[in-house]
Every structure is written in C-alpha cells, then in structure tokens.
Amino acid sequence: MRKLIDGIQRFQQDVVPTEKQLFEELANGQHPVALFITCSDSRVDPNLVTQTKPGEIFVLRTAGNIVPPYDALHSGEAATIEYAVKVLKVPDIIVCGHSHCGAVAGLLKPASIETLPAVRDVLKYADKTALVMREEFGDVTEPAERLTVGVQQNVLNQIENLRTHPSVAEALDAKALEIHGWVYAFESGVVTTYDPSSKRFVDVAEGAKPAF
Ligand SMILES: [Zn+2]
Fold first, then answer.
1. 105 CA distance to ligand 1 middle (Å)
2. How far apart are the CA of 41 and the centre of ligand 1, in A?
3. C-alpha distances in angstroms, 104 versus 23, 82, 199?
C-alpha cells in the first residue's frame, strides 16, 4: 500500500498542478473518442499504449476482455457498453486482447483453472474461441503460437458477443459506430488489428480496419 499512497502524493504535488486546466474542464463532462474493452491484466495500460489522457477513452476491463452477450442480463459490462454507445455516443469500440493472457491460457488448458469457479464461469462466454481453436487451429500445437492465435480468436469471439447488445447493433445499423479487434503485445509494444479483407491481424499502423 505504501507504494500507492506515495504515488498519490507525487501525483498531487507534480501532476495535478500541471494538468489543472484539463482536470477542471473534465468536471463539465466527458467526450471519449472510443470505448476500449480490454483485459484486467496489470501489464496492459490502455492510456499508456494509446497515449491518451483522462477523458479520452472510456475503458471496460474484464478477465480475458470477455464481453458477456446481452442475454447474460444485468451484467456490469452491459451497463458500461450501453452507456458508452447510447449516452456518450462513442464512434468506435476497440476490443483489445493481449500477449500472454492468463484467461485465454486457461481457456486453452481447462485443467489450469479447475480451482477457479468464477473464472470458469465467465469463460463460458468464450466457448466459441475454444471450439474454433479445436476445429480450425488443431494443427497449431506450439504452445506460444497456440496462445497467440487463441488471443486473436477470442477477440473475434468477443466482438460477436458485443454485437448482441441492442445499443451496439442499432449504432452499427445507423453507421454511427465501428468495431475494431486489436491485440497488444506488451513485451514489444506492437499492436495489431484484425483486417476483415485478409482475415489476418496486421500492424495497426496500416490504419483503421473496422471489423464491421
Ligand atoms: Zn489477459
């Protein structure tokens, strides 16, 4: 705890005075440019990787960046998505998986999460990832490569879940929203985006490639 409290003191002394105007303006409201859905993993920092400041991205973090489908009612995730799309009217949603994701590793190796009933329970919303990995990527056996492909397929699976949310479906129909599938490799800083035309993940520097 000491590290965190010391950090707050440094923040109040060094950061608050220099960002005073921004923080005061944020009291008038928020206009984030995107809803950024990613994993809770401590090695992933959405503001750091996108070089954004407070107020610029609306963040939803869950184990394995899993988005329960809309029929999994009363989820906090559904409330966050609905608010971002209907009230804040974000023009983009990014579902961002990451390298070395423990949740996806658990999905690929169920024995490793046998004693974690809550994790097992939420991973049911990634059943399709597990199925695709068995049926379409059974030949990818090298563990690191299998995990990388699993992370990518899980991003696509979670985008499908995201589209079951009525607010998202309506905004997509109205062409007021784009969804992007990203994977962030924290050890290298590389971010790739799903390119629906080639069905591959390509460097995000190639530009926005909306999945829908
Ligand atoms: Zn993760």
1. 9
2. 5
3. 36, 25, 20
If you measure from the C-alpha of residue 151 to the centroid of ligand 1, how many angstroms do you get, rounded to a whole number? 9
How far, in Å, are 18, 21, 27, 124 from residue 14 at the CA level?
7, 14, 20, 44
Distance 95 CA to ligand 1 centre (A): 12
Give the C-alpha distances (Å, rounded to integers) separating 198 from 133, 194, 201, 209, 211: 19, 9, 8, 11, 11
User: From the CA of 18, how far away is ligand 1's center (Å)?
Assistant: 33
Give average pLDDT by consecutive 10-residue segment, the chain, 212 residues. Answer: 98 97 97 98 98 98 96 87 98 98 96 92 95 97 97 98 98 98 98 97 93 85
Residue 187: per-residue pLDDT: 98
Structural domains of the chain ordered from first start: 34-206 (3.40.1050.10)
> What is the C-alpha to C-alpha distance for residues 186 and 38, in angstroms, rounded to an integer?
13
| Centroid of ligand 1 to alpha carbon of 13 (angstroms) | 33
